[in-house]
Give the backbone structure.
Amino acid sequence: MANLGVNIDHVATVRQARRTDEPDPVWAAVEAQLGGADCITFHLREDRRHIVDRDARVLKDVVNVKLNMEMAIHPAIVKVAIGLRPEQCTLVPERREEVTTEGGLDIVRLRRRVQTAVARLRQAGSIVSAFIEPESDQIRASADVGCQAVELWTGGYAHAQGERAVRRELAKLEASIVLGQQCGLVVHGGHGLTYRNIEPVARIPGFDEFNIGHSIIARAVFVGLRAAVAEMKALLVRFAPAARKETES
C-alpha cells in the first residue's frame, strides 16, 4: 500500500489571507498525523505566500513522521533546506504567477543547476526527490543527477477528459513507474488527486507514496482534518494492489 503524504500549504494560505496566526499549519500537521498521515509535506516558496520560515522550523520539531519539504532549486532556498535538514526534499518548479505548482520540473533543461542542488542536499543528509512529468527523459535525467526518488505529476490523469484519455494517462503512469524503478528510483505521485479519482491510480502497483493537499483540506472544512486524512488513508488501504491480490486469492 502506498503511504499518504498530506500537504498542509492550503492551511497556511487561509491564515495568510488575514495575516494572522490561525489556522496554524503546524497544528494541522499534528491533526494529519493523528488521522494516519505517513508524511507531512510543505512548500516553502521564495515569496513565502503561505508557509513561512517559522512554520518550517516548528514543523521540524513536532512532526514525527517523514517531513517532506517541497522547494525550488534557488540557492537561497537550498540554503534554508540545508539548515533545516528535513527527511526529504522534493525539487519543484516555481513561478510567481501560478496559483499552485503546475507541471513538473524540467530536469533535462536544468540539469546542471539541479545536479548542484541535489549534491548539496544529499550531503546535508536529506533524501532528494524531483517532481516531474511522467516522461522517460525526465525520469532518466532525475536518476542521472543523483535523485533518489521522483514524484510523478498526476495532473495529466486528473485533468483528462473521456475514458480514452484517462486510460492513456494511466498507462503513462504505469510505464513511468516501471522505468523509475529500473533506474533505481523510489516513485511517488501527486497533483489533482481527490477522493473521487484516487481509485485507478491507487490500484497501480509501484507507487510508494501519494502527496495530496487541496482535496483533503477541502474535505476537512466539513469533517475535520483528522477525519479527512483517515478517509483518504482508508481509500489507499482499500484500493492497494497487495490488498486486492489477497482478496482475489
Observations:
- The chain is about 50% helix and 15% strand.
- Residues 244-249 have pLDDT under 50 and may be disordered.
- The domain at 3-242 is CATH 3.20.20.70 (TIM Barrel).
